[in-house]
Amino acid sequence: MNEPLAPCPYCFGCKPTLSNNLFSFQVTCTTCLATGPTKTSHQDAISAWNELSTEVNQARKKETDEFVSRLREFEQTMLLYR
Predict the structure, then answer these.
(1) Among 24, 28, 57, 64, fewest CB within 10 Å belongs to which?
(2) C-alpha dihedral sign at 10, 14, 19, 24
(3) What's the CA gap between 49 and 5, in Å, rounded?
(4) Residue 71 has what DSSP assignment?
(5) What's the rounded Cα separation, in Å, for the pair 8 and 28?
């Protein structure tokens, strides 16, 4: 069963494509040209792209949550000095 390609984790482009280069497969974003890992099967290339997408999105969410937390701490500190 073929799993669908996730959107690009870098530009959120929804048109990644799977390319076959003789003995390898790789997913490339047609919007920003980001590439996924090169694999020996098309299913492995899709899985690797989707894993990359998940990892990047999780890291982005963690960084955003940490930034929001620091911003709230700063806001509370500023309220003390009013």
Answers:
(1) 64
(2) positive
(3) 7
(4) H
(5) 9
Residue with tokens 């076959």: 20
Cβ neighbours around 3 below 10 Å, total = 10
* Cα–Cα distance, 7 to 41 (Å, whole number): 20
Task: Please answer whether residues 17 and 28 qualify as being in contact, where contact means their C-beta atoms are separated by less than 8 angstroms.
Answer: yes
What's 7-70 look like in SS3?
Answer: CCCCCCCCCEEEEEECCEEEEEECCCCCECCCECCHHHHHHHHHHHHHHHHHHHHHHHHHHHHH
